[in-house]
């Protein structure tokens, strides 16, 4: 439909595009892909904000954006957008008597609850409930949601007896309006948590099992957000009641559920690995690890890891290339390496040589991808420095029987690092200053490769540049260095000067090093 509109700058086209993007964002949100949802909703806002100005639809878009930030643990941003939605709707209505206002008050309350400001949260929830009553919306979906949240806030304060009434009211509304539904499951789970905290383990287990049976009855793409928690709580209650037989039966049932759930997720045309489906994967791994037949479980686990690797490889490469936050890059690397290392470990246990080769080559490609990024910097706890990554790549070439490729790999890497170094010299901007650590690793890597490839003239050239670069670093860093860091730095720069035959500088750095040793 959008393609048929000839004037792409028309108000109609912009509004239609905005509403379409809003719908896409809401779909991603329901599937648990909050990052992608936020991208679509922000685009919707760009298309619609100027045209809609103060309109209920724009307020709802703000609210949806707030929901995404909340799910991404960005409470300050979430509160900003929930307040925008609330203020806009109140301005439009001229009062608080509009059916969206209690929803926005509830959302604001959830942020306060997440920030452990429980009294403020409870105040928001009660104000929202009073408004619903004035608006004659008692017994509605919104009342059930707000009463469940009120019960949660009371529970966080340790007021479990006070939480019973709002929790039961929320459940009764949801059971009446929706029957078997994800939100009804959440209410039953909440009732179980109240009983567990009141010390009645048997009643708690009964409620958790009720929630579980309803969870299993839900259709694909319609599971509750507490399904994983239900599994954990049933296991805990069985342990506390010393009912090992029931726990084993339940775990078998939970394993079948998770296997089916995982296949459901992978069957979606736009499948992406998110926090939502990572929980399914982790639950499967946990449940399989508890089984007694280790060989059979290892076969199933390897199949699971292989499926994950194949289904997400393209997504990972795309996201790794697009990500600019170095902390997130390190986290992505760590998570991916853990998947590959677990897969390799299982291949060794099962003598799966072809699959072992496949996973080792994937790991090799991953390390090379990080090596080639000029802005990738190691976080010490992860050990992904360029020198370490290069060493691991070369070892993997040996492991997969391609040792003869190492020389060509070194030549290509040297060319890449040379280009990155030269570009960094000519575009010394605020951005390049922020990645000085990456530049330091790059020049050190160039020198090491020159040695390995016997490129003496090139080594001398870049050795001189390395000296100048390190002298600049010394001017910037020395005031903040401790004694040990100064010794290490001076020793390294002295060795560079010696290696290129700059004996005057070598002597200078040696004397400075001797002074630092005596301090």
Question: Could you characterize the architecture of this molecule?
Answer:
The chain is mainly α and 519 residues long. The chain contains 23 helices and no strands. The protein has helices at 11-30, 34-52, 56-71, 75-93, 101-114, 118-134, 141-156, 160-178, 182-197, 201-217, 227-240, 244-267, 275-289, 294-322, 326-350, 353-371, 386-399, 406-426, 430-434, 436-452, 456-477, 483-499, 503-518. Helix 14 (294-322) runs antiparallel to helix 15. The protein starts with 10 loop residues before the first helix and ends with a helix.
Brief synopsis:
The chain is an all-alpha fold. 79% of the residues lie in helices and 0% in strands. It contains 23 helices and no strands.
Please describe the topology of this protein:
Blueprint: H1 11-30, H2 34-52, H3 56-71, H4 75-93, H5 101-114, H6 118-134, H7 141-156, H8 160-178, H9 182-197, H10 201-217, H11 227-240, H12 244-267, H13 275-289, H14 294-322, H15 326-350, H16 353-371, H17 386-399, H18 406-426, H19 430-434, H20 436-452, H21 456-477, H22 483-499, H23 503-518
Helix pairs in contact: 1-2, 2-3, 3-4, 4-5, 5-6, 5-7, 6-7, 7-8, 7-9, 8-9, 9-10, 10-11, 11-12, 12-13, 13-14, 14-15, 15-16, 16-17, 18-20, 20-21, 21-22, 22-23
